Structures are given as structure tokens and as C-alpha cells.
Amino acid sequence: xxxxxxxxxxxxxxxxxxxxxDTIKSTESSIYQIGWKRVDRFYCEKCxxxxxxxxxxxxxxxxxxx
Length: 66
Ligand SMILES: [Zn+2]
Fold this sequence. Notes:
By secondary structure, the chain is mainly beta. The protein has a domain of about 45 residues. The chain has one helix and three strands, in the order H-E-E-E. It has a three-stranded antiparallel sheet with strand order 1-2-3, with no helix packed on it. The longest helix has 5 residues. About 0% of the residues are buried. The N terminus is likely disordered. Zinc ion binds next to loops.
């Protein structure tokens, strides 16, 4: 039965309803600047598909979105 588990995803187009799941923040440093990286992960509560929204910026100051 396991090989048939994906039939419902392929045969029923999902009207994705993405909800926010997690936010992962990280930074890396160079001599002059800081690399601010924020990943917001969303998943669809209907089909459990997920997508990541990635924002990254090199700046000395913390960006507004971080
Ligand atoms: Zn979906």
C-alpha cells in the first residue's frame, strides 16, 4: 500500500493554505559586515507541502525584517 500514498496529491490540485511554521535566524560575519539571514518556513495545512521564504542581506546594522 505504501507506494500508493501519493495518489491524493497528484490527482487533487491543492488550494494551498500555507501557515507559518518556523523562523530560523542566523548570522555570519566578515571583517566589515554581518550577513543576516532569516528563513521563514510555511507549510500547507491541507497537503503538508512546504516552502521557505529566504531573506539575506549583508549590512553592519540589523535589517528591519530580521
Ligand atoms: Zn496544499
